Amino acid sequence: MPPAPALKRGIRFRDLALFYVVSGMSVRWTAMAAAAGPSILLVWVAALTCFFIPLAASVMELSSRHPDEGGIYIWTREAFGGFSGFIAAWTYWMSNLPYFPGVLYFGAASALFAFGPRAQALAASPAYYVAFSVVWLAIITLLNIRGVDAGKWLNNVSALGSLLPLAVIIALAVAVYTHFGAATHFTPASFIPHFSLNNAIFWSSVFFAFGGVEAGSAMGDEIRNPRRVIPWAILVGGSVLAIGYIAGTGALLVALPSTAVGGPDGLVNGIRLMSARLGIASLLAPVAIFVALNAVGGAAAYLSSTSRLPFVAGIHHCLPPAFARIHPRYRTPWVAIGIYGLAGIAVTLLGQAGTSVRGAYEVLVSMGIISYFVPYLFLFAAMIRMQSTPAGPEVRRVPGGRPVAIALASLGLASTAMTIVLSTIPADDEPNKPLAIAKVVGGTVVLIAAGIAVFLFSRWKTRRSASEALTL
Fold this sequence. Notes:
Layout: H1 13-24, H2 28-34, H3 40-65, H4 72-80, H5 82-111, H6 116-119, H7 126-146, H8 148-158, H9 160-180, H10 197-209, H11 226-255, H12 266-277, H13 284-306, H14 308-315, H15 334-352, H16 357-385, H17 401-423, H18 433-471
Helix pairs in contact: 1-8, 1-11, 1-13, 2-11, 3-11, 3-16, 3-17, 4-5, 4-16, 5-7, 5-13, 5-15, 5-16, 5-18, 7-8, 7-13, 7-15, 8-13, 9-11, 9-12, 9-13, 10-17, 12-13, 16-17
């Protein structure tokens, strides 16, 4: 028989560094953060210190210990067994499904600014947002099935959608400040975050914005020399991410009042106001296209990486064997990619049903937060657990060794747990707060229960097939 096709190692350092930029930096968060006022800058620093740095350190060591395809699924499986690994992967898959239309709605709203006032008539059209999301999800899925080179090409180009708009925002803010002064009144008291239920919910979203550095490791068998490439790519991409978020938010606060940004079109609307004020309104159209490209890149990065998890789960018989198939020509896990892409399209269509565009946007963003953080509990716990396992000389350890690794992972674990709690708090204007909490917690419980059912059914089916084979 001919040898089974293997995955292609086509991802290099440049590709992975740009992947971390496009997967981690969604420029929409800068406008959403700026809408909260100057105090959000301190929240950014807290998210960077308490979540992102522990996450980056954990991913660097875990991906060096186990640089295999599957990333967070493999790490949790090695630390706690197959059941925990599957639940970590399951919640990660499910949480990213509403992320796709959520981020693509932002891209759709941004793209309208490139085509003049007439195009703005589509801003209230659910059909336009759905069509934009579905078409791009189909293109992303087909490109990733076509091969790792085609998939990474879209990620690399989309990184410009992160870097260029933020550079323009900072440049425009400097010009606005030079000519007109600061739009926001900065005082020492304005930098102090004030706790409220609405603020607590939003702070969890800021921590959410720093997630994603673990995604690249899901393609471990498609990265050239992952033990060497992943740490350096995280360092470069993570530095760009941290600087971009904090500097971009600060620039918007300097140039515009916080009421001028927010919602799906907040960032591009801010660029429109700044460029019009400086007499360079023609700058808006090209920048709006790049902002839309950033949204497309975010969806592409997570679809390409997260779809590798059901592929590895299929190899381990936690999902039907079809998920483990590799295309003989393109050398990609085409079944897993295709099914995940179709699932994203289905969630897009279901998420819009019976609600307005803005309502659907807010629902899609909030749906993914609590379930998205559950896998991080497993990741940080796996980091702590593996400190008792000897590491070979080829493994890159966290500087400072076991004590520092445990301290960082514990900090990440605590901040993740806190973020999950904050995510369950309903807004101040919620009329029935107990019911709102019950919906969020109940939905998460149902999601995890569904994963348990899938795992148990797959294991039962595997044992039954093995038993039938023995009786033949």
